[in-house]
Automatic annotation (TrEMBL):
The name this protein goes by in its record: Serine incorporator
PANTHER family xrefs: SERINE INCORPORATOR, SERINE INCORPORATOR, ISOFORM F
Predominant place of localization: membrane
Coiled coil: none
Membrane topology summary: Multi-pass membrane protein
Record keyword Ribonucleoprotein present: no
InterPro entries found in the cross-reference section: TDE1/TMS
One Pfam family matching this protein: Serinc
Regions crossing the membrane: 40-58, 100-122, 134-156, 162-183, 204-230, 242-260, 272-290, 393-413, 433-453
Similarity remark: Belongs to the TDE1 family.
Length: 459
């Protein structure tokens, strides 16, 4: 972990780490706002932690570590260090598998939650605590690395089971935030393109709206067909049939609600583009849930399918796996984290959720500077009068995101199982299916809320 983080704390990233670091090599980086550069750096920090966690779950890592002189296969007792013939050797079982990911994410989430406590109530960059938020990057990396190393000295005991419950609670809270971001993205995308079409009356924007609407619905319908072909191969797959059929019916309903005259009376820009985004995301969650089903008879062997042998059952392997579904889930997760961290100050409901709806008194134009004088290459402080987002809530969200990625990597793993169930966990199935239902319910609420609460203003 230290080696990976050390690489990214080198001078190449210094320009994007804050004003102090930028002054060392500002010519290599374009101008950017202090609030933006800090959020980018925290996102990079989380990405690096995620990569290390993925490495810890890599099949064969433990056997590779056993070739290292100071590493041996331990008996899984409560200590990280095992004294053998007066030599201190590392128990390899402690640095691989789900428990190692738990320890890594424990340290990372603790770091973000402590940062959230330290930045409570900060109103502007004139607060002395601003330097903690926007500077001291080398020190923060060292503290994080030290915390990760220290986490591996926590005795096993009940740590895994207790931390799993914290992870499930925090992960589910982040799921709610992620769903709001997806819905907000759908609304913002549609409103932006409809507004441009209304302003310009260009057929190009109209065709773009139609194309992406039908394209996303076509992808969703194709997904449903493939689900029925590959995930309902036996009569024992009735649960999968229920998931596919029920979510398909719900998606049809929300699409109809999107274009109801009453809804469009209160939200003239509501339409099928938003519905297509939510429908496609619901189909993704449905697929993600079914790939986590413990019954391998209801999942296809994609290697056999690609080779043209038809939808045969997935082979039951005794080796731990980290499949494509988990990778796709992580990609979507990190995109959502970046989306939330890079939202502009007063953009939409997601920005208000992260407390970033305050209007900055300093305009972006003040960062133009004189390129020839070198003024255009720096990180400028745009929060002297007011912060662009709630620093405390931002770190809270990243702490929850860390717990979510921990549960995603381990597929909501239960400590009394083994690594062979990484891709077969009934808890993960229901978490993702319930998430799809919550997503649909939240989307419907954004459509009907202006009708039900007519005395309130919804922007």
């Amino acid at each position: 972990m230290g080696a990976v983080l050390g690489i990214c704390s080198a001078a190449q990233l210094a320009c994007c780490c804050g004003s102090a670091a930028c002054s060392l090599c500002c010519a290599a980086c374009p101008s950017c706002k202090n609030s933006t550069s800090s959020r980018i750096m925290y996102a990079i920090m989380m990405l690096l932690g995620t990569i290390v966690a993925c490495v810890m779950l890599s099949p064969g890592l433990e056997s590779s570590l056993q070739k290292v002189p100071f590493c041996e296969k331990g008996e899984g007792d409560a200590s990280l260090l095992d004294t053998v013939t007066k030599d201190v050797k590392l128990d390899c079982t402690e640095v691989v598998g789900y428990l190692a990911v738990y320890r890594l994410c424990f340290a990372m989430s603790l770091f973000f939650f402590v940062m959230a406590l330290l930045t409570i109530g900060v109103k502007s960059s004139k607060d002395p605590r601003a330097s903690i938020q926007n500077g001291f990057w080398g020190l923060k990396y060292l503290i994080l690395i030290a915390a990760i190393i220290g986490a591996f000295f926590i005795p096993r005991g009940q740590f895994g089971q207790v931390w799993m419950y914290f992870g499930m609670i925090g992960g589910f809270l982040f799921i709610l935030i992620q769903l709001v971001l997806i819905i907000d993205f759908a609304h913002c995308w549609a409103e932006s393109w409809v507004e441009k079409y209304e302003e310009t009356e260009s057929k190009g924007w109209y065709c773009a709206l139609l194309f992406f609407t039908f394209f996303q619905y076509a992808l969703a319908i194709t997904a449903v067909v493939l689900f029925y072909v590959y995930y309902t191969t036996t009569n024992d797959c009735s649960l999968h049939k229920f998931f596919i059929s029920f979510n398909l019916i719900l998606c049809v309903i929300i699409s109809i609600i999107s274009i109801l005259p009453k809804v469009q009376e209160y939200q003239p820009r509501s339409g099928l583009l938003q519905g297509s985004v939510i429908t496609l995301y619901t189909m993704y969650l449905t697929w993600s849930a079914m790939t986590n089903a413990p019954d391998h008879l209801c999942k296809p062997d994609w290697g056999s399918v690609i080779n043209g042998n038809g939808p045969t059952d997935a082979p039951h392997s005794d080796k731990p796996t980290f499949d494509g579904e988990s990778i796709a889930s992580l990609v979507i997760w990190f995109c959502c984290v970046l989306y939330s961290s890079m939202r502009s100050a007063s953009n939409s409901q997601a920005s208000r959720l992260t407390m970033s709806d305050k209007v900055l008194l300093k305009d972006d134009s003040s960062a133009s500077g004189d390129p020839e004088a070198g003024d255009g290459h720096h990180v400028w402080d745009n929060e002297e009068d007011n912060v662009a987002y709630s620093w405390s809530f931002f770190h809270t969200m990243f702490g929850l995101a860390t717990l979510y990625v921990m549960m995603t990597l381990t597929n909501w793993f239960t400590p009394n199982s083994d690594l062979t169930t990484l891709s077969a966990n009934l808890a993960a199935v229901w978490v993702k299916i319930v998430s799809s239902w919550i997503c649909l319910a939240l989307y419907v609420w954004t459509l009907v809320a202006p009708i039900i609460l007519s005395d309130r203003v919804f922007n």
